[in-house]
């Protein structure tokens, strides 16, 4: 295999797929990227066996061939090179030579036979999505995904495609995000799956210049087809929890707050909260919201009062400040609505005025305060 | 036919002497054991046990067994009356459960006992009331075939004995334990347990596997592997794989001819079969029934018949171990480990755990510089109690007599000037934190240190107020055995004091609605079960309950060996550690940190 390529595009392409390469693996060959050159088209593929990504790049091909190249070293050297043309050549023993200007770099690749075969299955259920719109939905949900390896079904975003509706749900057991695109055209597809975080992160990285994504979905996998890149992911096995059941419908204490004011106030107050629990207390009374924290161990205390559109009974509720900040950061509206019932059940947060065709709600479990 | 129905005889004097005397009945649970054994021996396949106030007020066992004739009924309550052995030779061939012939008499002498018995095929039989050993006359009585014995006001005439009984709850749990032993040994018998007019369980005749599910829960049933051994020692039963090992010796059932007994030796046979895959300090679940020629055993070692003497201990041991090992291996529970790797591994373990070996090579570690597992406590230990600790930070495995090099002393013995330079803190092997201090260096066990911090915080929160609790979006439902359920209910106030929100959810299940905010709790169910086991293992003395819950909470919520820590986290941990009241020892008595003085280092490098 031998080809010439411009460093800038080459680096961009590696950058887009390097995220899939596992940092630690029991299967060393997965630390490679598979290079496959056919005439002037270079296809680069990486996988961790769960998620695979493959991207195409136009190069000046000189000799066709296939070889697996260590991803980390290649990525680091290309990153440090200036934007100049470079040449990459692999011999029969899978020795890879990289030449750029006056530099010469040699690394040991591996045979393509060592690299796992990635077969992207065709699916019956296919549809198209607006890339930017979907990217926005992903970024609003991913933060709530769990990292708890004991509950694997929470380690991804639940995706449900219905006629005229696309729905994403993420939760870690303490908070939950549900977002619905109600103007979605599913082309008759009805399917659901849990997409691993890693696949969505990779997708999001590759969406910047895309307009439309073609999606194929089945019970156990999902494929995102972009203009030059294809991402294939196994769905997470298991049953996503019954999230509809935990979304309260009788939260009658409703308050409207300016999002920026609220968020920056919570940030300041949380500096004085216990560094492990990040616990803050919200006290609602007619027309205002008190935000307080104290750290008994170190004697710190903070308190702020902001205006709030509220006319119900007084209510105190505790939250983990970090969770609250996360939620406020991922909403776009000027104001938010917080719907509460009592100090121990879920609070629901909506943007005031949903965006066109979008229906989003975020749910946060309180911390039971010690005086309750 | 009528003659042979009179089954009960007075044992000849010489035979009664051969049987060691001893009280059989010491608490309600032992009454249940004796009565149910009698019911099983009478051929019953449906047994109901009814109790009130933990059996103190009422214990009634109703069966559908053979029943007794009028003379049998009277004779049954005389000492050493039994239907099961007549002469000494028979004693070698006992295969029924009860045989000492003293149970009913003992019970009748300390309680008010109402007995009604109807022979099979008859519609009327006889009733007899005995109060404190005084027999009333036998009256005719109608009823269904079988025997019903109601024991009321146990120890009513021996107030000292009665005072000795534990709380209603504790006695109730003892009865549950005894009943579980029967239920698991006799799946073909239908058992019903009624407590305070409420049905605790109603088990129908079922397969052994399905019975395990009914008694121990579905999770355990799914993880049980069947074991068997043929030959002179026939072994049947089930053993739990390593997914269901417990932190305490619950759920270990050893039977001889379906008679429950305890044997340290045979328990070790099961543990030995597990070998290295069994985590330290955990216990496998098993139900093992040994069947063999009864002439090879002496069941008569103890009046309550909990111990058995085998003529050929070694054969039984290897049969049990073999049966368990085969089952585990065939289910791929035990990976094959070559002796070489095993040896290499254990060496590595010893090396990485010994503080002196950080800078010393393999040879040095094995030479006189390192410490050998010595026999005598070396100077430097304040007293001998650490030698009993399950694992000390020096971690020498084996007989537990871990020793320290004379020069590496626990900080307790010296005043450590713990003024750290905040940057001079390192984590080694994701297990220990090393820091430079003024006159040397200290090594902190990260898990034990955090354990100490959490322990004191938990104790404090008992004194002050309820801590906050992160509510869960998806409350976790945990299924327990009847016994564990009853214990957990008792623990709830204490659990709430450390931040759990746990509620009873009916039929042996609880629901966890909240977890403590200040610890990262991932597997709520496992942590709760571990706290429960720890609690069971400890003394249930009221004053110690708090410390117990606090200690087990701390132990299972603390960061573990293997958790990576950032510089900030390490400094935070050290700060918090030194603000505790007793930073040098964990609640279980293990050292939190050890101190290596500069003098000592100098001496070792031969600078003096």
The helix/strand class of chain A is alpha+beta
Beta-strand share of residues of chain B: 15-25%
What's the multimeric state? heterodimer
Task: Tell me, briefly, the overall form of chain B.
Answer: elongated
Apparent shape of chain A: elongated
Radius of gyration based on Cα positions of chain B: 29 Å
Calculate the terminal CA-CA distance of chain B, rounded to whole Å.
98 Å
* Strand percentage of chain A: 35-45%
Average of per-residue pLDDT values of chain B: 73
User: Averaging pLDDT over every residue of chain A, what do you get?
Assistant: 91
- Quickly count the helices of chain B: 20
Major sheet size, sense and barrel closure of chain B:
9 strands, mixed
Give the uncertain stretches of chain B in residue-range form. Answer: 12-22, 334-420
Give the low-confidence spans of chain A: none
Fraction in helix of chain B: 25-40%
Greatest contact between two chains: A-B, 28 and 18 residues
Number of extended strands of chain B:
26
Could you write a compact summary of the structure shown?
The complex is a heterodimer of chains A (372) and B (608). Chain A is an alpha+beta fold and 372 residues long. Chain A has helices spanning 7-18, 71-80, 131-141, 197-205, 243-246, 259-270, 321-329, and strands spanning 2-6, 32-38, 41-47, 51-58, 60-63, 65-70, 85-90, 95-100, 103-108, 125-130, 156-162, 165-171, 175-181, 191-196, 212-217, 221-225, 229-234, 253-258, 279-285, 288-295, 300-307, 315-320, 335-340, 347-351, 358-364, 367-368.
